[in-house]
Structures are given as structure tokens and as C-alpha cells.
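Extended Data, record YtxH domain-containing protein
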Amino acid sequence: MSKNGKNTAGILAGLLAGAAAGVILGILYAPEEGKETRKKIKNKTNDLKDQAKNKYGEVSEKVKDQYGNISSTFKETANNVAHTVKDGYDKYKDQIVSKTADVVKDVEAELNDLKK
């Protein structure tokens, strides 16, 4: 497209935007009908605001519920891991104590044999 065509498109877009803005302002500020229009716009705005509040409340509740679910799942998993680690520790601790006692007995037996 030529430079002149781009300028024409820009001017046309500007004129259309200006015309649209003029029509909207004309409707809003027209004597009697404008009051009704503004009233309708205000009512619609209030309706949209109420809908937004309701949606926010719904989403907020869903997020709280999900947080609660995730939190309880995390706590449950953490408790399971803690019990598994503790059980493993206790199991290996008992094995080490038992092996240590066996080693002590073997060393004492060897020392006694050496003393004889």
C-alpha cells in the first residue's frame, strides 16, 4: 500500500472513531432521552458491579476450598513421610544397637582369648 493509502486509512479510522464518540456523547447528553439513557447505563453498571462481586465471592470460595484441600493433603503427606522416616530410623537404630552389642561381645571374647 502506498504512503498516501496509509494516511487515508488513518484519517478514515480517526473520523469513524470521532463519529462514534460523538454519537455516544449525543445520546448521553440528549435532554430527555439522555436522562433515560444515563439511567439505563447506571443501572447496567450497577448490575455488572453486582455480578462482579458475586463472581469474586464464588472464585474466592473456590480458592479457599482448594487451599484447604491442598493444605490438608500436604499435612497428611507430611505426616506419612514423618512416620515412614521415624519407622525407618527406629528399625535401623535397633539393628545398629544389636550389631554393636554383637561386635562388643566379639571384641570382649577376643580380648579374653588374648588374655589367656
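Summary. DSSP finds two helices and no strands in the chain.
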